Amino acid sequence: MPRKSLTESVADAHAAPGGAAAVDRALTLLSAFRSGDEALSLTELASRARLYKSTALRLLVSLEHAHYLQRLDDGRFALGNEVARLHGIYAASFSLDRVVIPQLRRLVELTGESAAYHVRQGRGADAVRLCLYRVDSPHPIRDHIKAGDVLPLRQGTGGKVLCAFDPDLSGTGSAADRRLYAAIRERGFYAATGDRLAEVSGISVPVFHADGTLAAAVTLTMPSHRYDERYAKSVLEIARNLNAKV
User: Fold this and answer.
1) Cα distance between residue 167 and residue 169, in whole Å
2) What is the pLDDT of residue 125?
3) Is the separation of the CB atoms in 178 and 170 below 8 Å?
4) Which residues contact 159 (CB under 8 A, 6 or more apart)?
5) 192: alpha, beta or left, given left = phi > 0 and alpha = psi -120 to 50?
6) Which helix (H) or strand (E) holds 32?
7) Which phi and psi angles does 121 have, rounded to 5°?
8) What is the C-alpha R_g of the chain?
9) pTM of the predicted model, to two decimals?
10) Is the pLDDT of residue 172 over 90?
11) 3-state DSSP call for residue 41?
């Protein structure tokens, strides 16, 4: 009778409803590779996926056969050429606006307020915040930032979130700035009234690349008289939907 692990595997803990357990487990072995990994041993892969080595090895053999992995002379496993082929297809077909804009529209539907996607541009003293995408509120009274507008990096909730979660910026500024950035990181979002414009309120949440680096900030803005901090829940939801997809 097969042994039952005392620790649930990564695949079992995050199983796809109605999916195939073996596929889930094989995919966790591919996902075990992290930024900077050139190759991993069977022990390392099994440990990261929380699988028995015997189970992991059977799955690795199948992944090697399909060219998703390659076995090196020292017995370690590296990503195979099939991964590179699929990445090339993905990169050629990927369009950021097809990912981001539907989520911003969803945020506007949930809240009735304006949603934007801000990224950092430039370095050092020349760094600014670019509004890359924007979906307006249906209300006639709203702020009128447009996609393509360049804004100060250290002003506004979106700018503060970009500073707080960017390792190049989070330790800069005044002592008060650094304390604020630490508080934003602890809370996971920043909500404020009048941070950049006196009568405008905003709620911003960071969005991350698959490797954990900062990608952008999703920001919900509204006139201050319509501000409701409960909207933070919806902004957090949209940011989670975008994480690792941008």
Assistant:
1) 5
2) 67
3) yes
4) 118, 129, 151, 152, 153, 196, 217
5) beta
6) none
7) -130, 135
8) 22
9) 0.66
10) no
11) coil
Q: Is 99 exposed, middle or buried (0-12, 13-18, 19+ CB in 10 A)?
A: middle
- Provide the residue count of the chain: 246
CA-to-CA distance for 163 and 170, rounded, in angstroms? 5
Q: How far apart are CA 44 and CA 108, in angstroms?
A: 44
Model confidence at 6: pLDDT above 80: no
pLDDT in tens, 60-104: 999 999 999 999 999 999 999 999 888 888 777 768 899 999 999
Domains by residue range for the chain, with CATH: 10-92 (1.10.10.10), 95-242 (3.30.450.40)
Q: Is the pLDDT of residue 3 over 70?
A: no
pLDDT, tens only, 42-51 = 999 999 999 9
Q: CA of 105: how far to CAs of 20, 140, 180, 196, 218, in Å?
A: 33, 17, 30, 24, 12
